[in-house]
Structures are given as C-alpha cells and as structure tokens.
C-alpha cells in the first residue's frame, strides 16, 4: 500500500503525494482556476493534470528532482542553474496572463503593514526591519509587466541533469516585475546568481533584484510564522542584506 505524504499544508491549501500523484486541495476556487489557466498559458513544462474535482486538483509527478530547497545548499550543477535562468527568461517573454498582479503602490502599502506587524509583535528586531524596508524601496518603482510565476523558488523548479524538466505551483502567476521571479529563484542561494543571470541574459538591475530579496523576505515572514513554518532562511537573508 502506498503511503500518503503531506508535502505542505496550512489552513488555505494543502498538497499531498500518493505515489506519483500529487493532490492539491485549495478551498479558493478562483485561485485554483487561475492556476490551471496559468499552466495552460505557460511556455514551460508543467505537471500533467490527471483530473480535477474541486477543491482537488490531481497532478502527475515531474521527472527529475528539485533544483534545491530553501535554506539548504543546492546539489544541482551550475549548468542546471543556468537552465533555470533561461527558463525564467522564456516565461518573461511570453504573452501576459490575465491576472494583473500587484502594482508598486499596493506593494508599498502591503510592505508597510507587514513591517509594522513584525515590529509590533517583536518577531524581528526593529533595526533589521527598518533597514531592509529602506533597501526594498528600490523595488517599488514602475516596471514593464511580464508573465511572472509569482513563487519561482528553487523547490518549484525540477531538473534532470542540466535541463529543466518542469515548474510547479502556478497559483500566484500574474503580470509583474521580472526581478521578482529572479529574486525568488536566488533568495538564500545568492552563490548561484551569476549562473542564473548567465542563462537569463541582459536587462537585470542588480540593485532592484537585491531590493526584492528584502521585500520578499519581509512580506513572507508573517505568513510563515502564522502557518507554522520556519522563517530562518528569510531571516538569514534579511540579516545578510545589512551586514
């Protein structure tokens, strides 16, 4: 009998694995619809949809293995990281998805709210929060929207050898800033930044990308703490940004 593995779970969504089948349970029908639509539009390999019966989406496992795990050294080759950068470029050059995503003004308001919560609840030192909030300012500027994955972290990119075999979890896909995806991909894996950029090509502002490291980390700590996850990788990034 095959065991049921809980891949990730919180009160909004859960992903279970049974053999080579992943079962995504999402109570937000609109978000699940958007994920299915984004997978159909994406110019990258995505998991095969085996069946769908809301709130459950059944997906086939992708070949290969994760490019890495948050907070842990990646064992993937430099060439695999180059391929991940090339995949990000291919996505960003695709026609825009329908979801508009957040604009700089909305992000700034969201960031201010999260920073206030982190300080008021003594989750992080005020100096760490305010210092990174200043760095994040560089990301809050007008941008030309592209097709962004929205959560292009290393655990969502699968590789086999030096090739990308697929990308998981398109629930946050929307129009957005290309630097946001690149920051998510290299967050806590800055040692592979040059490889990613070699695959991605021109047009990357390193100051903006680093600003997104601060912005993304500040915005996600509240969620991680509230859902029982360890924010240590993001906190380490925030500390490294200032020292």
From TrEMBL:
Superkingdom assignment: Bacteria
Known Pfam families for this protein? APH
Do you know which SUPFAM superfamilies this protein is assigned to? Protein kinase-like (PK-like)
Domain Aminoglycoside phosphotransferase: where? 22-207
Recorded protein name is Phosphotransferase family protein
Which species does this protein come from? Amycolatopsis halotolerans
């Amino acid at each position: 009998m095959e065991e049921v593995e809980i891949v990730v779970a919180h009160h909004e969504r859960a992903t279970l694995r049974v053999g080579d089948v992943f079962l995504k349970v999402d109570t937000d029908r609109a978000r699940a619809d958007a994920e299915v639509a984004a997978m159909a539009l994406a110019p990258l390999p995505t998991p095969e949809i085996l069946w769908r019966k809301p709130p459950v989406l059944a997906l086939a496992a992708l070949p290969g293995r994760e490019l890495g795990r948050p907070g842990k050294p990646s064992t993937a080759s430099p060439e695999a990281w180059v391929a991940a950068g090339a995949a990000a470029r291919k996505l960003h050059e695709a026609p825009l998805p329908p979801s508009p995503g957040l604009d700089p003004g909305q992000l700034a308001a969201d960031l201010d709210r999260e920073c206030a919560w982190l300080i008021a609840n003594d989750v992080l030192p005020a100096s760490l929060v305010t210092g990174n909030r200043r760095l994040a300012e560089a990301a809050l500027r007008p941008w030309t929207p592209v097709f962004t994955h929205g959560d292009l972290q290393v655990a969502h990119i699968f590789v086999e050898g030096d090739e990308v075999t697929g990308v998981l979890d398109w629930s946050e896909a929307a129009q957005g800033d290309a630097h946001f995806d690149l920051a998510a991909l290299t967050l806590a894996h800055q040692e592979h930044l040059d490889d990613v950029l070699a695959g991605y090509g021109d047009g990357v502002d390193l100051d903006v990308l680093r600003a997104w490291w601060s912005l993304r980390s500040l915005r996600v700590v509240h969620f991680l703490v509230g859902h029982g996850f360890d924010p240590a990788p993001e906190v380490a990034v925030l500390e490294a940004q200032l020292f």
